[in-house]
Specification:
Helices cover 38% and strands 21% of the residues. The protein contains 16 helices and 19 strands. Helix 8 packs across helix 9.
């Protein structure tokens, strides 16, 4: 994947001066070896940070900086030193994880006990005291093998944190008329460290026209033809789409500034069709597949959410309307008795044609049916061509979103489920989704907390990583699909 950070993890062991330093050292070696056995890579810092010796912190930082480390694991091989370990995290400045060693055997209890279980409490206390945010796993104490697994789980979280820190969102145009759901409070973005560049549709149109006759267009067309294969049902629109894709990519490179990573949130209707002469969905899908997520309808927080999912999963994602119910007839015919879901736990996720080709059963170039009705109701479609349509392939999924609310506060939701192997029998990029307790989640999270109709979709279960990331970022309100018997605050207890 392009446009996402590469994580270089490093580990520094810490030791309280009244405990054997050799214990932290030997346990660190064991953790590193266990990680490498699992296929992980890490820089093992030889410096042990001890209590009361700040110079050790500087020595360790110098070592990890020379090694190019951008995600740090602070490992309590014993009780650990309160101030130096927190100072290490604070001065590092990037994503930091704290974990601690479990006692290996009965034999260590008599004289070689590490007490890292106790030290982890003081580490947590001092992180709060100093206002340092760090990732701490659900149960952060373990054997070498268990700590290695925790470190592997840290990688996607660190990748997302690094990406957000260096991200710019580029937008074109105001949101479509009467689309208040795509409102985007800016201040919370700045609080995350995310920058934004807002442009008009006219800026984009001028840039597009400047690319007319671009010598790169034929090669770009060939790329599209190869990807579409038999799905290239409307080849006549490809020159316009190729010109548009080059326009967006050139704009990204010319306007990224100091940002390492860029995503977009672009106006795509209604004037787009009459002025540009196509719908941009297929190009949006292609850029999203590369890692340059493009959200429809100037959904700035949708683009942000897509990027988070790309970092967490390391794979292409999409942005969909939480769109329509599954007809009872379809449920009875294709779902009931075959999958463990009630009718009201299913729904259809849809958008015009922005889902990457790799996520469709069989993607085809088509036209936007709804727009054609109003813009060119007679004859063959022309300016409404450009959607990538087909059934979304069966897969496990995570439905999620990070959103700035009406009060300018960040909030989020996340739920795991799956795309069912059921023919949606409809137009657009569309799939039949199932999420346990979706009916209650829909009412008491999505509606109750004021979320818009767009949800980001990662095609893996990354709910655990997303929830942990929100905690590290300081997001106070994170909704999820609570299991049966666990009432939402607003849920009526009387049935």
């Amino acid at each position: 994947m392009l446009n996402i950070p590469k994580v270089k993890m490093g580990v520094v062991a810490v030791s309280r001066d009244c405990f054997p330093i050799a214990l932290s050292e030997s346990r660190r070696r064991a953790v590193v070896e266990a990680l490498r056995q699992k296929g992980g890579e890490i820089y093992e810092c030889p410096v042990i940070v001890e209590g009361g010796i700040d110079s050790n912190v500087i020595d360790a930082l110098n070592g990890i900086n020379r090694a190019g480390v951008n995600a740090l694991v602070v490992y309590l091989g014993n009780f650990g030193p309160e101030h130096p370990e927190v100072l290490l995290a604070k001065k590092f400045g990037g994503p930091v994880m704290f974990i601690a060693a479990a006692e290996e055997t009965i034999d260590v209890l008599s004289s070689n006990r590490g007490d890292a279980y106790c030290g982890m409490l003081n580490a947590g206390y001092n992180l709060k005291l100093h206002g340092v945010r760090a990732y701490i796993p659900e149960y952060p104490v373990g054997t070498a093998e268990e700590c290695a697994e925790m470190m592997l789980e840290f990688v996607p979280i660190a990748r997302a944190m690094l990406g957000l820190k260096e991200l710019k969102i580029i937008s074109f145009g105001p949101r479509p008329a009467d689309f208040y759901a795509c409102n985007a409070p800016i201040a919370p973005l700045f609080e995350l460290g995310v920058n934004i560049q807002e442009n008009s549709e006219l800026d984009l149109l001028v840039a597009y026209r400047k690319h007319e006759g671009d010598k790169r267009i034929p090669e770009k067309i060939r790329e599209m033809e190869k990807e579409l294969g038999e799905g290239n049902r409307m080849p006549g629109v490809l020159p316009r789409l190729a010109q548009y894709e080059l326009t967006l990519m050139d704009w990204i490179e010319a306007n990224r500034g100091s940002a390492k990573y860029v995503v977009m949130a672009n106006k795509c209707w209604p004037a787009f069709q009459t002025e540009f002469g196509f719908v941009p969905c297929y190009v949006n899908s292609r850029l999203t597949a590369m890692g340059y997520c493009v959200a429809c309808e100037v959904d700035i927080y949708g683009a942000l959410s897509e990027y988070i999912g790309t970092c967490l999963s390391g794979e292409p994602v999409t942005l969909l309307d939480i769109n329509n119910t599954v007809p009872a007839e379809m449920y009875e015919r294709s779902i009931a008795g075959k999958f463990p879901y009630r009718l009201n736990e299913t729904f259809m996720g849809f958008h015009c044609g922005n889902t990457p080709m790799c996520r469709l059963v069989k993607g085809e170039m088509r036209y936007q049916l709804i727009m054609k009705r109003s813009l060119e109701p007679e004859g063959e479609p022309d300016i409404t061509r450009g959607t990538l349509e087909g059934a979304i392939a069966p897969s496990e999924i995570t439905f999620y979103r990070l959103q700035g609310n009406k009060d300018g506060q960040l909030q989020a939701y996340v739920a795991e489920g799956e795309v069912l192997p059921v023919d949606p029998q409809s137009f657009g990029g569309i799939g039949v989704f199932a999420i346990p307790e979706m009916n209650r989640f829909y009412r008491h999270v999505l509606i109750q907390e004021g979320y818009p109709h767009h949800g980001a979709v990662a095609f893996r279960h990354v709910g655990k990583a997303f929830f942990a990331l929100m905690q590290v970022l300081g997001i106070q309100k994170v909704g999820f699909n609570q299991p049966a018997g666990m009432l939402y605050k607003t849920e009526n207890p009387f049935k």
